[in-house]
Amino acid sequence: MTVKLSNDQIAWRAAQDITDGAYVNLGIGFPEKVAQYQPPGRQAIFHTENGILDFGESPAKGEEDWDLINAGKRAVTLKPGASFFHHADSFAMVRGGHLDVAILGAYEVAENGDLANWSTGPKGVPAVGGAMDLVHGAKRIAVITDHVTKDGRPKLVERCSLPLTGVGCVTRVYTSLAVVDIEGGRFVLKEKLPALSLEDLQAATGATLVVAGPVADLIVPEL
Amino acid sequence: MTVKLSNDQIAWRAAQDITDGAYVNLGIGFPEKVAQYQPPGRQAIFHTENGILDFGESPAKGEEDWDLINAGKRAVTLKPGASFFHHADSFAMVRGGHLDVAILGAYEVAENGDLANWSTGPKGVPAVGGAMDLVHGAKRIAVITDHVTKDGRPKLVERCSLPLTGVGCVTRVYTSLAVVDIEGGRFVLKEKLPALSLEDLQAATGATLVVAGPVADLIVPEL
Amino acid sequence: MDKTVADLATVVAGIEDGMTVMIGGFGGAGAPIELIHALIDRFRTTGHPKDLTIVNNNAGNGHVGLAALIEHGMVKKLVCSFPRSADPVVFTERYLAGRIELELVPQGTLAERIRAGGAGIPAFYTPTGYGTLLAEGKPIAEFDGRAYVQERWLKADVALVKAETADTHGNLTFRAASRNFNPLMCMASRHAVVQARRVVPAGAIDPEVVVTPGIFVQAVVEVADPQQEEDLNRANAVYPGEA
Amino acid sequence: MDKTVADLATVVAGIEDGMTVMIGGFGGAGAPIELIHALIDRFRTTGHPKDLTIVNNNAGNGHVGLAALIEHGMVKKLVCSFPRSADPVVFTERYLAGRIELELVPQGTLAERIRAGGAGIPAFYTPTGYGTLLAEGKPIAEFDGRAYVQERWLKADVALVKAETADTHGNLTFRAASRNFNPLMCMASRHAVVQARRVVPAGAIDPEVVVTPGIFVQAVVEVADPQQEEDLNRANAVYPGEA
């Protein structure tokens, strides 16, 4: 199985589900790519935990203002209509259900919607940031991830083995091979790469993939 | 017993205990008079529940701005250094212990520090406002009141008979006859009108007045 | 994105029977008179909405704004801290006749319950009200040797809010003490409807001075010269005038 | 009333061994570098304060600011949400060697616990962390059929805060995303110490744009040209320079 979506292509696919005017939080790192692939005519409003709504792209190198950063400590710019607020107000937006969607990375996602994305175990320094708040806050929690780990183990599993970020919180997973919804404690396959057989996809998945309706072709965009 | 302090004289006495730079909330009505009697050289900062810090006197008649009012819905003015904030921040100031003193009226004060000042019983429309928040918020809760009711019954009592505003919250009472502290569940007399005998004062009081140290003369200011 | 709505009738059209509606303001400061009157107009035309639960600090004054809403029989229950005023006759008569329910809440608890609703905090503990009638039946817990009352969040279907300036994204500023409950009610309601003296393009409000970020606001209507409840009551106004 | 203090040494003089100190900032934005360095200077001269409990979102970066405070052995325990960064070697080494305690708190819970400390709310319920390691041992309660974790307020003896403009009454404004935890920490500490780029007379800040009202601030010191942690770290700075 050599054909799979690149991270940029996964991010593109996730971006197609974000409606115009949606309030969105993108996790640090890979999920930040989603912002680059908004369809023409749509403008989401991006929230960052450290107190900015409606921030934009990075400034040119050398133009950074280090008081104007996002949660990943990356310098950003402002769009017209931006606002600043303190951390309690910022997480009132998160916890209070005011964000339309949060898109996060994952170590593991389980068929019951559990997410593990903050700790790879007891070794090293633990760090959680805002992930545990986000997974119980936004109206919709989506995950973008490679379908399997670097050494080929499934990331979509029956039960998470790593420490949980949140319980029963994820509703959609965009992977390098498929789009999978979590419905009633099951992985329901919505889209898959056209060249990939259901059997091969199932073999790369650590829990049963339910087919409960039409399975669309996962688009491979040219980026 | 015809000699007693007027409301203005009680307010004057209470004002003497407010230090320079203190943050103060004055209850609606009679307690508002305290602001007029700050000793020269001292400037307290007055807080009002509806979101102003450092407001000043009423404007001239006809000059009122009805967006600039205090909790009693009276038009006020601003002093240099004033600020506006919403109701949750305003009561964070109250409940969080940031006010140095709140001075409130009372129907009854008990020797255990209980205060009743919001309801005269089940008849009519109940209304509480910010009184219950204030009595558990400010560092010091003082009461100013006539020593007895209009029909001569004591307002300083063993136990409140009216619905409570707060439990064990009052530490000092300024009355028309005396200054009384509440210490260890007892009324401790600190000052009394010089012409008034201890016996007569006790007779006008509904609980034992303890003399546990020198009793100073309550000053009768010329206002 | 443009949250601007052209007229008052449209902006209140979605408010239905039985909803919980938070109304901003403390006294006349920040009371969204035009929005309330638009809601009364809707009721006079259609018979709806009625059986509303209203959350406000007070119970209205005179015969305009919230008092007029009550006077039209649209309000089933009021959640407030201080249902007294210079002229609360409309509420008082109905309350004493048992025709309107009252949930009396200490003012700071009311503010915090609304903020909690907006911030996703289902319950919190406060010293306020401990040992009083207003804490009866509520869970009590001790922390560090002191007793506290558990209070629940307060949320609403709709908030009616008065702002000074709004931009098309719904970012708001307020004027003086008319801020009061307005920013909190935007947070705690599914649909926050704002009347603003000025509606400006996105970017025209300095990001540093935004009080309510647009994420908490769903609709904005410009009311360039809003009425002040206090002025109306001093003129003994009645809504609607030709009664 | 004038809360201005002339110099950095004086303003940190009251910070003693064993105290809990909240330090504002998120990354380099809003980190009060000069106040932290003044505290290090005090330690280098007097051997105090030490055994501090520090509350900050992060665990420092490089060898300046909070990282330098840890590197000097002044910190017994850190309460934070994200003790990782581009260069967290100072904290990481000490943590893995068991020489510093860590209380890991989800970022929104950290913010809310600090606000609760400032607002007199001893405990609240949040969905955050339910069913995870970070909720272990904490009371769980169900509201409307959903499970929540009980969290306690967080208070401090001192807060070290960076502001943009302060007036002599302690009213503050911040700059861009350097607001972050700073206003909350002013609320939650007995003694909030602020470094501001500009100190102006009372009345020079518009009452509408005050972010932190002066009631939450105890001391203000002007640092006209503050260092930015991010710039220092990009230049591989070490505090103090002549080590």
The average pLDDT of chain C is 96
Largest sheet entry of chain C: 8 strands, mixed
Overall form of chain C: globular
Strand count of chain C: 11
- Radius of gyration of chain C equals 18 Å
Let me know the largest β-sheet of chain A.
Answer: 11 strands, mixed
Could you give me the name of the CATH homologous superfamily of chain A?
Glutaconate Coenzyme A-transferase
Number of domains of chain C: 1
How much helical structure, as a percent, in the residues of chain C? 10-25%
How many discrete domains of chain A?
1
Largest interface: A-D, 41 and 55 residues
CATH topology group of chain C = Glutaconate Coenzyme A-transferase
What name does the CATH topology of chain A carry?
Glutaconate Coenzyme A-transferase
Helical content of chain A, roughly? Answer: 10-25%
CATH architecture of chain C: 3-Layer(aba) Sandwich
Beta-strand residue fraction of chain A: 25-35%
Supply the helix-strand structural class of chain C.
Answer: alpha/beta
Alpha-carbon Rg of chain A, integer: 17 Å
- CATH class label of chain A: Alpha Beta
Q: Helix-strand pattern of chain A, N to C?
A: HEEEEHEEEHEEEEEHEE
EC number (chains C, D): 2.8.3.6
Enzyme class (chains C, D): transferase
Protein name (chains C, D): 3-oxoadipate CoA-transferase alpha subunit
Keywords (chains C, D): Transferase
Structural notes for this entry:
Chains C, D: It is an enzyme of class 2 (transferase). Chains C, D: Belongs to the 3-oxoacid CoA-transferase subunit A family. The complex is a heterotetramer, with two copies of chain A (223 residues) and two copies of chain C (243 residues). Chain A has 223 residues and is of the alpha/beta class. Chain A has one domain: Glutaconate Coenzyme A-transferase (3-Layer(aba) Sandwich), CATH 3.40.1080. Chain A has four helices and 14 strands. Chain A has helices at 7-15, 87-95, 131-134, 198-203, and strands at residues 23-26, 45-48, 52-55, 78-84, 101-104, 108-110, 115-116, 140-145, 156-157, 172-175, 178-183, 186-192, 209-210, 216-217. In chain A, strands 1, 2, 3, 4, 5, 8, 10, 11, 12, 13 and 14 form an eleven-stranded mixed sheet that branches. Chain A has a three-stranded mixed sheet with strand order 7-6-9, with no helix packed on it. The mean pLDDT of chain A is 96. By secondary structure, chain C is of the alpha/beta class. Chain C has one domain (8-234): Glutaconate Coenzyme A-transferase (3-Layer(aba) Sandwich). Helix content of chain C is 24%, strand content 26%. Chain C has helices spanning 8-11, 33-46, 65-71, 89-96, 107-119, 182-188, 229-234; strands at 20-23, 52-55, 75-80, 101-104, 123-126, 140-143, 146-152, 156-167, 172-173, 189-200, 219-222. In chain C, the strands form two sheets. In chain C, strands 1, 2, 3, 4, 8, 9, 10 and 11 form an eight-stranded mixed sheet that branches. A three-stranded antiparallel sheet of chain C has the order 5-7-6. In chain C, strand 2 (52-55), helix 3 and strand 3 form a beta-alpha-beta unit. The chains are: A alpha/beta (223), C alpha/beta (243).
